[in-house]
């Protein structure tokens, strides 16, 4: 498996040793900052580690009551950021699930090269090994409220500390796999925050096939992040929460946004799990596209050969579309 293909195999291994009953049953200087925000105070965040020595990639680690450990964030600045006073649109980019996935995933894959010369700030936060960009129904490992961290804390902190267009037309959200689901979810639940949303091999339907994606979210989160707790509740789901997070049930929330979807169409002969994973992604995205089309909501989509992995060429296409949709730097 190429190092350019982040997967959730690590989570699968972690879950393999658990029965379903066990797994699911247990309960520099910042450019535009004021002094308080530059110190990391405000929005429930406190900086505990930082590195602003790189010309483009700035790193932070925060203490926050929303998460029971200190999550990291990479902020990739555009070329020329330090030499002018322009404001820039922002892309929030979310990693996929797996024990080897975190806020540096896209840096390892080549995000600097993909964005070279592009007038956009890219924010890449931790989202947990299987956090599902959610506040879980239950956790036996302390707070793991990723939705609160990303939306209520990190987003306003970024706008306060960098030269951003702090408005609907100034933000996009995108992600791979679990991160693609997170992007679709946030774009719908927080309509006024993001003008463009992209899902690269991201699930778009939580209830199809007897709720397979919801079951996987519960199982993977129980095994990898929540010590037996779950995102959506077990043995019974929090049905209102599932509906609130389910893209196919929130179709009107994508109206007047740019929507970009990518899914693979053919099995990966090396990795059976990725084959199963992408098969479900493809079916869910087709269902989502069907309801978008029926509602008359424009969207872009790509179905391409291969399984469950990031495709840099399609990310670059997506990035150009994002920049075209958002307010210009």
TrEMBL record:
The protein's enzyme class: transferase
A GO molecular function held by the record: diacylglycerol O-acyltransferase activity
Signal peptide location: 1-38
Enzyme Commission code(s) on record: 2.3.1.122, 2.3.1.20
Record-linked Pfam families: Esterase
PROSITE patterns, per the entry: TAT
Keyword Oxidoreductase: no
Superkingdom classification of source: Bacteria
Catalyzed chemical reaction(s): 2 alpha,alpha'-trehalose 6-mycolate = alpha,alpha'-trehalose 6,6'-bismycolate + alpha,alpha-trehalose; an acyl-CoA + a 1,2-diacyl-sn-glycerol = a triacyl-sn-glycerol + CoA
Keywords: Acyltransferase, Signal, Transferase
Family that this chain belongs to: Belongs to the mycobacterial A85 antigen family.
Protein name: Acyl-CoA:diacylglycerol acyltransferase
Organism: Streptomyces gougerotii
